[in-house]
């Protein structure tokens, strides 16, 4: 069972003594730990070289004060004719073009179409066909720029989710969330970078490249919504649409010093996302949410994203709950465990400042709790990876199951086939007679797949030693040197991990689902309908590029709330000694998104919210 201890003035008030029994197979834990050690040995020297040899670049200075206004304020100024939508769009387009060479967040733009739509909005307002009150009620985001993560469909724009050819995909229609935002008057003007298949907490791929953190370009903005976070934080956009399967709306928000919200699963449509899955559990783990520089924009953004306006009214997202009516609970870390890091002292201090503020300003005594989360990372990883139709680079049909709404229907490969040959369509039989398969028939970029998959494929009877021309050592070397495949390392590592997870018994998985329910009920009982849980977004601030490959178990801080199906907001609460943003998560029970957003507003007021990233000084001229 999950252990809950409430600590008040150093004394345990409530708790269960027995330690929870570890349900994750020992072999899996040891394999994961061993893999982490290998990755650390391989990647750590590279990250150190990058940090010492790469110079930090600063952003161009802000030149237009419109870029410092919230979306809510911009919408008000536009509909009251104080400023034109076209002027606002031009300001954001100019800014995006200025900062993209430094940050590399842009996948594709729709600047020309966006300006046409802005002029149409200005024409509607000038016509007087609708009053200001009608415009606010019917088109609350009229004329406001909107950026969208590439994995979320925007008609006519790239929807590849960071993949390279031959997986090129242009969206035929808008995702439901984008459609709803357009109906509210928002104007999409850019789609932003995401890691391949959204399978990384580092935003990098072979198609667009690596996105940089605006506070230190040697560091990552996080992932998988790193393009959005970098753009919004740099005042290149004001609001954005993002997705979240394991913290993708929150880690980038923390690393880039803005606000990101993962809503209660089901209240916002997930149609039109690439990738997707058909597993019945998918919609419980996965959400589409929002990012903003200013907390006041999140309620409006989320409300406009919802298809069911009746539900939106019931959730009262735009009604802020006074913090005096909210109960607060918090933890400073989740262990640490053998694979997780302890929370950095500066993040612990930030949490304590929040707790102290609540006490001094509002007389609220936040209660420190100790919820045992020994298996939190493995719980999230195994349950997510075991879902059906999760995309993998080992899929026999590699573009299937990515998105039902965007991918054409194609036949499935037989169980005894692997999609690695040049002939016989997208796959060829490599069964009992596989030894007769000529080396020339095997695509070079797929040879490494045979090495990794053959040991776990029940119907794959070929020994790798019987494949002419395939040297396991050489293919593994090529795998690590990025020479023979079209994928970045993260989806490959995930696919390898999934192969191992698929071998875990159904009884063990069933026990993990039971544990998931226990953890969910622990939070339900603790928080009720008026409580929030404060928790670090990550145990450290933005790290250098690629360090996530051995720090990824720390994603348990984020994935915890995907497992428990809770709404959660990353809140900016200051910067560390190096000027890097610190964020904490505010989580609540299902359908209590309003509590998260209310606390976010309070913390922004208390701690200042977004801090402008460093910009270089404009050149001065002398007479």
Automatic annotation (TrEMBL):
InterPro entries: Amidase_dom (IPR023631), AS_sf (IPR036928), FAAH2 (IPR052739)
Protein name according to UniProt: Amidase domain-containing protein
Disordered: region residues: 396-415
Record-annotated active site: 149, 224, 248
GO CC annotation terms, alphabetical: endomembrane system
Cleaved signal peptide residues: none
Domain Amidase: residue ranges: 87-388
Biased composition (Polar residues): 400-409
PANTHER family: FATTY-ACID AMIDE HYDROLASE, IP13792P
